[in-house]
Q: What sequence folds into this?
């Protein structure tokens, strides 16, 4: 059985404690939970830039062959990683989306009276479409003199009609979510990521030099591979490529694969280097995140959401164990009170809409 959360931070906890879902919602594990893959060395990200290779590309290249890193130690994890990597390379990867959220965006984009602000409000609840729009806004067809790192600028650059067309074109991805028998798990993963976006956004507001939108996008994208992994497991089971996986085993696979595969998925979305590093280092030791405020913000955002029990069992924040709060000078429950209220209210508002 998966042990209960103990209220500590990524990098200081056993692998199974990192997953944003309630352990008591899972059925008994088969006892074969794998060990986590060690995160790439932070020194790799600070190496001199090779000609024609960006900082972001160099960071992402470190997690390019996840299935090879796993090798024969866990055939199921290797099979899932190979499947996701193959779909990503072929441009055929489908990321499950919440049907009602996608439908709201489509309806808003079709409304002639809707403003960009209205679209953004709904778009923030759909990480998949948000990532696609950022990718399009930074493509050769639409790119301006500066890269786009926020949804508002992306919508202005693309135009509401193009946003609507894209939302319509992606509506087929909703079917994968509706057909997935682990839809309850997918829903809880979505809630956790959405709330982490809100929490990271609020924390960024209090950290000098950090942008709120960067915090939000890093938060909602931090585990974008999780629904992909759940979907891949279901497909491989139906094709009898892997045996049926218990819920506990699925959580173990999420712990092992999510961060590394997220790096592959967000590659075309043109996220800033700081966001890519924050996602890569979220499960590492706190010392690896020193000097990287956005990485601290992401870890603290996840801790706030776990404290609220959104998508997971409530896990009180322990500042002695989660030292990232100290690095952004937010290690005070009084300072976190207003942030917790905003995160709870916004997440509930969107979840009920």
A:
């Amino acid at each position: 059985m998966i042990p209960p959360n103990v209220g500590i931070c990524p990098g200081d906890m056993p692998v199974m404690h990192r997953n944003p879902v309630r352990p008591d919602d899972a059925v008994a594990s088969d006892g074969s939970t794998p060990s986590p893959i060690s995160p790439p060395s932070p020194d790799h990200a600070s190496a001199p830039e090779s000609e024609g290779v960006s900082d972001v590309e160099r960071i992402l290249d470190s997690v390019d062959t996840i299935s090879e890193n796993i090798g024969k130690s866990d055939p199921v994890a290797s099979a899932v990683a190979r499947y996701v990597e193959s779909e990503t390379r072929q441009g055929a990867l489908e990321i499950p989306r919440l049907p009602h959220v996608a439908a709201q965006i489509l309806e808003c984009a079709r409304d002639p009276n809707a403003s960009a602000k209205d679209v953004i409000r709904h778009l923030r609840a759909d990480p998949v479409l948000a990532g696609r729009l950022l990718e399009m806004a930074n493509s050769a067809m639409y790119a301006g003199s500066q890269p786009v790192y926020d949804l508002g600028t992306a919508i202005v650059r693309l135009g509401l009609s193009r946003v609507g067309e894209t939302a319509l074109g992606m509506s087929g991805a909703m079917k994968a979510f509706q057909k997935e028998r682990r839809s309850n798990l997918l829903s809880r993963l979505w809630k956790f990521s959405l709330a982490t976006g809100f929490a990271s956004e609020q924390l960024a507001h209090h950290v000098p030099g950090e942008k709120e939108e960067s915090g939000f996008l890093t938060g909602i994208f931090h585990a974008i591979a999780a629904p992909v992994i759940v979907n891949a497991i279901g497909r491989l089971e139906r094709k009898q490529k892997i045996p049926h996986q218990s819920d506990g085993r699925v959580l173990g696979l999420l712990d092992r694969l999510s961060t590394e595969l997220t790096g592959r998925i967000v590659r075309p979305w043109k996220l800033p280097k700081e966001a890519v590093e924050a996602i890569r280092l979220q499960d590492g030791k706190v010392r690896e995140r020193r000097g990287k405020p956005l990485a601290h913000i992401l870890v603290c955002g996840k801790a706030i959401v776990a404290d609220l029990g959104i998508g997971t069992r409530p896990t009180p924040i322990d500042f002695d164990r989660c030292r990232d709060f100290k690095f952004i000078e937010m290690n005070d429950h009084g300072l976190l009170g207003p942030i917790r209220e905003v995160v709870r209210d916004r997440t509930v508002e969107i979840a009920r809409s």
